[in-house]
Amino acid sequence: MFSAPMVAALLAGTKTQTRRALRPQPADGADLSLLRNPFGQPGDLLWVRERFAAFGHWQTRHNAAKGRAEWFFTDLTRSRGLAWRYEADGGGADAHAVRAAGPPAWHSRPALFMPRAASRILLGIVAVRVERLQAVSLADALGEGVEPGGDPAAGDPAAGDPVQAYRAVWEGINGPGSWDADPLVWVVEFRRLTP
Q: Do 157 and 130 fall into the same domain?
């Protein structure tokens, strides 16, 4: 799963790697060569999930195991001859109700629920390694798709520094203090195969 800015970086060709924390973190002195990356190995393919909009409607149905009615979304996008819309392209939903019964409309959907058929980006893994988060180099930070910005005159620590810009992205995803924890991370390098 990738956020809209990271999808934009994938499409622009500036994002060529991603870092994901090892869960759970291995004990000090553990043999890291025995670990298997859950995100894949060189030669494997990854399909990108991103926030999108689908045409469909919400309904409720009874879940016998839970003993209650639950909401579920019926995606009619393909059956109506439509194409999914992508948040990274500014393709939001016209209907903002998350769970509202009614006629089919466009609904915003989290990346978690993106079907494989809606994915428009395929990545081929070229390398995998484990390293400490703070070992990210200048080139690696740029490979993460960040654009160093900020205002040096305003004292912005990320101004012109890709590593600090990546730190801001990491903490935005993983929470305050997550950079300082310096966890072991999977570094997955890839090349975009589509589009």
A: yes
